[in-house]
Amino acid sequence: MPASTPSIDTLPANLAELRASGWRSRPVKEELRENFVTALAAGETLFPGIIGYDDTVIPEIANGIIAGHDLLFLGEKGQAKSRLMRQLTRFLDEYVPYLDIPACAVHEDPLAPITRLGRDLVRNHPERDIPIAWWHRDDRYAERLSPGTKFADIVGEIDPAKLVSGTSMSAEEALHFGLIPRMHRGIFAMNELPDLDELVQVGLFNILEERDVQIRGYPIRFDIDVLILFSANPATYNRSGKVIPQLKDRIGSTIQTHYPPERDMGIAIMRQEANVSLDGDYPVLVPPFMEEIVEQISINARQSNYVDHQSGVSARFSIANYATMIANARQRAIRLGETPAVPRISDLAHLHASSVGKLELDLLGSHQMTEHQVLESIVADAVRTVFEEYVDDYGLDDIGDVFGKGVKIEVGDMLPSTAYADRMRRVPAVWEKAFEVNAAEDRAVRASCMEFVLAGLYVTDRISRGERHGRIEYEI
Fold it and tell me: Please, which residues bridge with residue 28 across strands?
């Protein structure tokens, strides 16, 4: 990483001081590459907070940066594409100098200005009288979402107000600069590239090809120094006609992102991004199997025939569901005065609130099922998957036989944990099986384990279940 600047007040304040300091002008891609190589050689964590990409995505980004390419991040929603793009500013210098010209729309390189205002200032004034300001790396990044974006937004347009004031249409002063010229010497990111209007794509193609900006065909050219990043979903990017071939051809490297290949990685991401405190007045203890079920719900949703695979299922699906599960467990603790709060299977009944809108149904595969019905099916499959990993078949049929004799057990998300031990006296085998899942003596943990076993028996068709007013009754 570039060394941190002690104080901006100690930096050169005019062009003469800047030259005397030995500062060197570098294109933005060269600056990025040199700082990235320094961090790579030092063995630094290149993208803090990014989990599961060390052996796949990050090496491809490294190659693209070292090669000096513009980059396309290609992947489904919730695969950290935007976060990766934003973190590239870490590899810029902490500050870069620019000519302090209030009327200038770009941050001019003091040693290589590209506008008439910048060139005139350097040419007509003593260097000690040319003011220098400093641009922080966090401000050298801008991004735009493609839908609704016009040519004027990112490239520029003739400013009618300036024409009315008498400015010639072919003069620089008649132009209103868009985002890309304003990010000269910085990084610009275009999200959801396939949704960008073809006219704007042509403008981007010209910038990638020639590294200059031409507005309305007038002979005014600016040699733009900018790193351009793109993001796109594979389903739309690869669809014929969505992105012009010339633009695809000029993008240097395509970085393919992906969902976590292992459930443990997904859980680590879920914990990190949910950023939910488990401490406080009402602490929460989350059993491992409950975390695994929440992440398995997302895994199953991505594989479900009911869900549109082209859309994908974002990591935000797991994150929101995890936070909702913990919130309902904490609400129970507050209402009943229990501590710690321990999430249960019955808490998952509230995931509908945090799941609506995050699943795009496959209209053919779902057979007109509602989103709520699809979610219930996916949750049941997730419980079955995790249950079968935890509990072997030995003894489960015996439990089913007990229920077959007419035993009914009612559970619910607002039932006190102390009630579970009393209810399980009628089915001691369930209580013992719950103890096998987790050997904790805490009643709230044992209650959660018991619900897990009961739900597992239900999804494996050993017992039946009825639901009424938020309470679940297991029976034959």
Answer: none
Strands (E) located in 104-252: 132-136, 141-145, 156-158, 175-177, 186-191, 212-213, 222-223, 226-232
Residue 474 clears pLDDT 70, i.e. is over it = no
For 158, phi then psi, to 5°, come to: -70, 135
Of the candidates 251, 199, 258, the one whose C-alpha atom is nearest the C-alpha of residue 229 is 251
Distance CA 414, CA 354 (A): 19
Mention the CATH class of domain 8-256. alpha beta
CA angle 97, 98, 104 (to 5 degrees): 165
pLDDT digits (tens, 9 = 90+) for 169-185: 556 666 778 888 899 99
DSSP state of 462: S
Nearest to 17 by CA among 92, 124, 97, 101: 97
Q: What does each C-alpha distance from 336 to 257, 442, 460 come to in angstroms?
A: 44, 16, 32
List, in sequence order, every residue forming a beta bridge with 229; answer none if it has no partner. Answer: 71, 189
Distance between CA atoms of residues 409 and 451, nearest Å:
10
Looking at the chain, the domain(s) classified CATH 3.40.50.300 span 8-256
Please tell me what DSSP assigns to residue 401: H
Cα 231 to its chain centre, rounded Å, is 12
Q: How many angstroms separate the CA atoms of 62 and 46, rounded?
A: 9
pTM value is: 0.85
Segment 433-460, tens digit of pLDDT: 555 555 566 788 888 888 888 888 888 8
Peptide bond into 340 cis (omega under 30): yes
Question: What does the DSSP 8-state code read for residue 3?
Answer: P
Closest CA to 449 of 462, 460, 440: 440
Distance CA 139, CA 135 (A): 7
Phi-psi region of 47 (alpha: psi -120 to 50; beta: other; left: phi over 0): beta
Count other Cβ atoms within 10 Å, centred on residue 466. 11
**Both tokens assigned to 96:** 């870069």
Element containing residue 474 per DSSP (H, E): strand 471-475
